[in-house]
Design brief:
This protein is mostly helical. It contains twelve helices and two strands; from the N terminus they run H-H-E-E-H-H-H-H-H-H-H-H-H-H. 80% of the residues lie in helices and 1% in strands. A two-stranded antiparallel ribbon has the order 1-2. Helix 7 runs antiparallel to helix 8. The protein is globular, with a radius of gyration of 23 Å. The chain starts with a helix and ends with a helix.
């Protein structure tokens, strides 16, 4: 009987190991493919012309492949979405995990889950029909399809990831921590923000990472509300993100243009890896401290 249990555990361990290796292999395969597909275009165009060029005219008689507007737009758009979405998502998670009555919590968590299941094209459609005209009317500009519209849509789209993961992290904090804080005279709000939140900071940071990844990687909704024009980023001007640059031209691209689009995908991939590595570095440093 004992031998059968050990054999079963060995088999299960082997299955998990194989699945983990498959996941790592997929990441490595994607990485190698993007490098092999993207490096040639960067070599042909030139590193400075590619990364620092301000003009993207891939179909012109004399084509230009500068992606600086796309890089800056992605940075500004993601930063704006994080600045807008993270505080709202974090405070909502604290409220739902620690303060809200069960009836309100059940309704709001169901609404958040529903928000997570809405396709991105629906966000883009609602943004295009409601948000873009509202921005045009409020700020009295010719076209509401702009960086601001993209930031608002992205901020809404990252809320489910931040809220759900943060709630899970906060609910995993041992209740003894909070009881001890309350016994020492701290108020419930002080306990939640000075005890529960620091104890769950790794999970909250993971929620922020997921939100950043969603914001950087979104294409369809952003394309529908940002105007998709290769301009340097301005809050009330039509812009194009790294993701939308690939999505809008890949279907009819060929030759150097197609290689340049793979180079953009490589840059996007490296951005996400850099952000994850940076956040993991600070988390490990905090744990060691």
């Amino acid at each position: 009987m004992q031998q059968k249990k050990q054999l079963l555990e060995t088999v299960i361990h082997g299955i998990f190991l194989i699945l983990g290796l498959i996941t790592v292999g997929c990441v490595l395969l994607i990485t190698v493919y993007l490098i092999l597909s993207g490096i040639p275009a960067i070599q042909k165009i030139g590193i400075s012309d590619f990364f620092l060029g301000k003009t993207w005219a891939s179909t012109a008689a004399d084509p230009s492949f500068g992606i600086l507007p796309f890089i800056m737009t992605s940075i500004y758009g993601t930063a704006g979405a994080i600045l807008l979405g993270v505080p709202i998502g974090f405070l909502t998670a604290v409220y739902l995990a620690k303060i809200a009555p069960p009836s309100i919590k059940n309704v709001m968590t169901s609404a958040v889950s529903l928000l997570a299941g809405i396709p991105s094209v629906v966000y883009g459609l609602v943004g295009m029909m409601v948000l873009v005209p509202a921005i045009r009317s409020i700020f009295d500009i010719p076209d509401g399809a702009s960086l601001l519209a993209a930031i608002v849509v992205l901020a809404i789209m990252i809320l489910p990831s931040i809220i759900n993961v943060s709630i899970t992290a906060l609910e995993a904090v041992p209740k003894e921590y909070e009881d001890a804080s309350l016994a020492l005279g701290a108020t419930p709000v002080e306990t939640y923000f000075r005890i529960s939140v620091p104890a769950a900071k790794s999970g909250i940071a993971a929620a922020v990472v997921l939100g950043v990844g969603r914001a950087i990687g979104e294409a369809m909704a952003v394309m529908m509300v940002s105007g998709n024009a290769p301009n340097m980023p301005s809050l009330f001007q039509s812009v194009r993100f790294l993701t939308t640059a690939v999505a809008s031209e890949l279907s009819y691209s060929s030759g150097l243009q197609q290689q340049a689009l793979f180079s953009i995908a490589l840059v996007l991939f490296l951005f996400i890896m850099l952000i994850n590595a940076t956040l993991n570095f600070f988390l490990k440093r905090d744990k060691e401290a």
